[in-house]
Amino acid sequence: MQSVIQVKNVSKKYRSHQVLQNIDLTVNKNEIYGLLGPSGAGKTTLVKMIAGIEIPTTGSISVLDSVMPKLNTMTQIGFMAQSDALYGELSGKENLEFFSSIYGLKGQKQKERIDQASDLVNLTNFLQKPVNQYSGGMKRRLSLAAALLHDPKILILDEPTVGIDPVLRQSIWDELYKLSKSGTTILVTTHVMDEAEKCSQLGMLRDGKIIASGSPRELKDNTSSTSIEEAFLYYGGAHHAN
Ligand SMILES: Nc1ncnc2c1ncn2[C@@H]1O[C@H](COP(=O)(O)OP(=O)(O)OP(=O)(O)O)[C@@H](O)[C@H]1O
């Protein structure tokens, strides 16, 4: 199996605050890898380092065989941050035009990619509306479309479905499966257990450490759990007992 993301012994400190400790993690091509953990566990910090936005204090991260941060590799990553970085005064379409021009898309290709990405997130009929009139869920969907514009090899999504209703959440997951089947590798953070269940591989993060990793099935079988939540509590407890 071809690995596209390798995190080796990574730690991150902000001043004296140790946020992540000795993280090892591998994501293989076409996987949907979920980083599951409660608020403050360090998920955002970890995905930002993988995307090349933050730098580890110690350890190394390589993406598509390049040590991060590397500009060329960063252009092959679509990153959807937790808070939407959108221009409120501009319409949805103008936002997508702006982001696609940053990726160097122009003319017919730009139009095609904007059409595809907005269709994927069901925003086609709202593209003319200013973004400051969008609901929270619509802003999330527009951010997802923006992350997809340049057809990235790796998609990194930080809590992508927060504020999105269950029907649309399912349709976004359906699209993530399609993207993964067509060759996109997806790394997604979540604190929602049933969402973690949808991933092909999971890393459970707690207090800045990976407490367990494997497929949802493996994690449940290995702990004789009937749910991911139960497995998470098991590993969390075992971790604290050590
Ligand atoms: N720039 C920063 N400077 C100092 N501390 C930071 C910084 N960024 C994050 N932290 C701290 O690192 C810890 C982990 O934060 P992080 O956002 O990575 O967690 P998270 O698991 O993504 O949580 P959430 O789901 O709430 O965003 C928190 O205690 C946070 O306060």
From TrEMBL:
- The answer on whether this UniProt entry bears the keyword ATP-binding reads yes
Per the UniProt entry, what species is this protein from, by scientific name?
A: Fictibacillus norfolkensis
Which keywords describe this protein according to UniProt? ATP-binding, Nucleotide-binding
InterPro entries cross-referenced by the UniProt entry: AAA+_ATPase, ABC_transporter-like_ATP-bd, ABC_transporter-like_CS, P-loop_NTPase
Question: Which PANTHER family does the record match to this protein?
Answer: ABC TRANSPORTER G FAMILY MEMBER 20 ISOFORM X1 (PTHR43038:SF3), ATP-BINDING CASSETTE, SUB-FAMILY H, MEMBER 1 (PTHR43038)
Domain ABC transporter as annotated: residue spans: 5-232
Spell out the Gene3D superfamilies in the cross-references. P-loop containing nucleotide triphosphate hydrolases
SMART domains per UniProt: AAA
User: Per its record, how is this protein called by name?
Assistant: ABC transporter ATP-binding protein
In which domain of life is the source organism classified?
Answer: Bacteria
Q: Name one GO molecular function term.
A: ATP binding
Keyword hit for Nucleotide-binding = yes
Pfam families linked: ABC_tran
